[in-house]
Design goal:
Layout: E1 2-5, E2 11-14, E3 18-22, E4 40-48, E5 53-59, E6 63-70, E7 72-77, E8 82-86, E9 90-94, E10 99-104, E11 111-118, E12 128-132, E13 144-148, E14 157-158, E15 163-170, E16 175-179, E17 184-192, E18 195-197, E19 200-202, E20 207-210, E21 215-220, E22 224-232
Parallel strand pairs: 13-14
Antiparallel strand pairs: 1-20, 2-3, 3-4, 4-11, 5-10, 6-9, 6-11, 7-8, 7-10, 9-12, 13-15, 15-22, 16-21, 17-20, 17-22, 18-19, 18-21
Amino acid sequence: MIERRPFETLGAANHGWLDARHHFSFAEYRDPGRMGWGALRVWNDDTIAAGTGFAPHPHADMEIITYVREGAITHQDNLGNTGRTEAGDVQVMSAGTGIRHSEFNRERGTTRIFQIWIMPDRHGEAPAWGAKPFPKGDRSGQFVALASGREGDGDALPIRADARVLGATLKAGETAEYRFGPGRVGYLVPAGGQVEVNGVALNVRDGAAISDVEAIRVTALEDAELVLVDTAA
């Protein structure tokens, strides 16, 4: 089954400096039917004004993956980590036993990100942070693991969950396939462009909740950029 979740039906909160859309229940947005998908707990679509951002705040026991769609985000935490992650690249924060961090848009223009939270399989471990550039050419026409806790994904940023976050870029008319193992579910969002997933049409920033499907075939109706999460059901 592939359930389209149109962008206009997502939870919304506009704070002026932050225009947020929520694929799942988050903060003041509550929907009993959208509490998560497998181990995927949060998928926020955030637009952050120049010179603003999230002030220092704590997290624990969560894998937090940030995919930058436009602009750049600058991370700082109480472990001494600092880093700037640009569009198309990814950062991962394993909150572990506890971490305090800030995320700011230090750019002159708007920054747009997907922030994805996945519940960890392991607890009681020290917090960690990492970032890595992922050349878009490597993702052309195929899904590539960007963050993963699964065997065989050694080039991806590590997370402490039986899950992977994948990216792909497709030219108009191109098709990419992805196979799920038994007992897996997926959630896909086009960061750019219109696509069809097993014949189901998705507009940019729509969500697709995928279950009971062995494989998906994604066809780009126009140039497209895709983010997919594969997790245990």
